[in-house]
């Protein structure tokens, strides 16, 4: 194998490995620990610096429940790609555009779905539903950056301190941290110096009912595309 071929194989494997790690929401440290692998070695594979031996590829494939070929072959990864070996392990959730004023969540998926994201199938238990939104702006930096995608568990309630998709006064949805108080809720950006000038604000119980303030979903997964 020439150096050029080796580099190409490294890149293909790295792309596939990173893809499956995103799909199954597993970070490098967790994967290395669970498979009892050296973290630095795994990082080299993820970064395309080296190529694992076949026994390691088999271990990784078993972990994800896929075929070895899914890790080493050069697939065209578009948003509609559905590997047959993953059909029972992964489901697609709608990536929505801007949530328009006054439109209930139950009515938006068909008309406002612009793409799909993949999540582990075992998330969809007990009739749970999910949707995804692409982050715009800098109000939730540094944890959530402009262009990132967040998958939300669809729910009208949340716990204090959770990051939520919230609709205010029937207008487009916003993404903020929710703090529950005795007299209402506070919506806060993580970046107080955000360019939109959004500052923490308390909405009273009366305002929650009359404006209204609606919790649409709780952040479940952050997706960063390189």
Strand proportion, as a percent range, falls in 25-35%
Low-confidence stretches: 1-6, 78-85
Please state the CA-atom Rg, rounded to the nearest Å: 20 Å
| Largest sheet: number of strands, sense, barrel closure | 9 strands, mixed
Placed side by side, the strands forming the largest sheet appear as 2-1-3-4-9-5-6-7-8
Average per-residue pLDDT, rounded, comes to 82
CATH domain class name of the largest domain: Mainly Beta
- What is the global morphology? elongated
H/E series: HHHHHEHEEEEEEEHE
Total number of beta strands: 9
Instruction: Provide the number of structural domains.
Output: 2
- In whole angstroms, the N-to-C terminal distance is 28 Å
